[in-house]
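Recap from last week: sequence in, structure out.
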Amino acid sequence: MLLKYKYKLKPQKRQAVIISNWLEMARKQYNYRLAERLNWFEATRTPVNACPLNVSVVPVERIYQNIPELRTQTRDGRKKDGNGNPLTRKGDKHPNIINGYVAWETVQLADLAQTKKLFPEYKSIHSQVLQDVIQRVQTTMDNFTKPDKNGKTSGRPKFKGKHYYNSFSYPQLSNSSIVKNANGRCCVSLPKIGLVPFVYNRSIPEGFKVKTGSVIREADGWYISFTIEDKTVPVEVVEIQPTLKN
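Predicted structure tokens:
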């Protein structure tokens, strides 16, 4: 079972400045990566009644410009065979373009290293926080291009203004991230930010483990939302579907 527990953060002034800067840089990165995806999407589409059947809508060299054909794996894969050996290893080459489709999430994740070279301020952000921005873009594009179980898709993704991008996430936190500082105050340990005090008004239920944490901006300040999980608690399934008759 997955639950969300939300708490009020009480960051120091220095920490509040860092959090605000991170959020703004994450917003800019989100908009830039979304623009990459939308530009490519629009460049490879044409009206059905004007679609040429024997040539590409856009020259192939333009469609795939600045997209590396191959990527090099930087570490051994997590999946293993029956003997415990990684199925993929560090140094393996993998294609970025498969059957004409670009593995955009992988390409953009790899390009974060170049972003940090061009804009050194991005080095201050925890790497997993930046990676989560790319995953948000991927989810947004999936919702736009892939129909759900009812055959419906969401509208064209929009760029985020300053008041419409209000959170960033740490994909990997744990129960040990909740600690007490030297003054005995409850804090959450956020990598590259430090121990941030928060109002621990209800404890994490016994047996649940903290999985992720999202720092959220609201009108009255900053909050931290933990995703917690207990795999031993079954997910409730509604056996009777509500209708007008019952």
